[in-house]
Design brief:
Distance between the termini: 27 Å
Structural class: mainly alpha
Shape: globular
Strand content: under 5%
Helix content: 55-70%
Number of helices: 11
Radius of gyration: 17 Å
Mean pLDDT: 92
Order of helices and strands: HHHHHHHHHEHHE
Low-confidence stretches: none
Amino acid sequence: ATGEPAFWFVNEYASALADAGRHADAIAQMDAVLALGIDQYPALVSQLINRAEMFNHADMPDRALAAMTEADEKYGGKASQYGKMWMWAGKACALRTLNRADEAKALDDKLTATQDDNKAAVSMAAACRGDQKMIETLLVDRLDKPDDRMAALGLFVRSRQSPMPSTFDARLNGVMDAARAAPAVQAKLKEVGRVVDFAGSKTYWGGF
């Protein structure tokens, strides 16, 4: 693979390393591909955002916040609205982990105001603050709308879980699992699909 597909191949590999608890190796992979330069390859802004988010998943919220802030300040202009919302969600999660909830709330409000542009990022931020009800509402809405349904159904593919989830991942997984199991969500799921068990590890996509 070359170009943008190659960037995402490295991203997927780094995600697998992180899922195995090898967070330093995951971030090193992202650093290597980012060394190609965002100015030369603007599409790498996605990998920059995902690298910053890896610090949250590695239980390093201070580094996640610094990396997200740097990404936003230096390269936010190269990111789509969808990408910017991942930055806001990542920053909100880091701030909440650092007990800076008031600052996180301002970002949550920005996400909610434009939630149709990236419902997955809105869901992640909701999981970070333990807002299960909002995630349930979003899941029902996403399952109900044909344009959102495919991504939402992906959340009901059950894969093998990481044998060593970080504290961050375990907390967010618990909130998402509870939201998926809610009666209203299960009722809507039965209308449009079903749970699928996959005998393998999850991919990068589909956590929220």
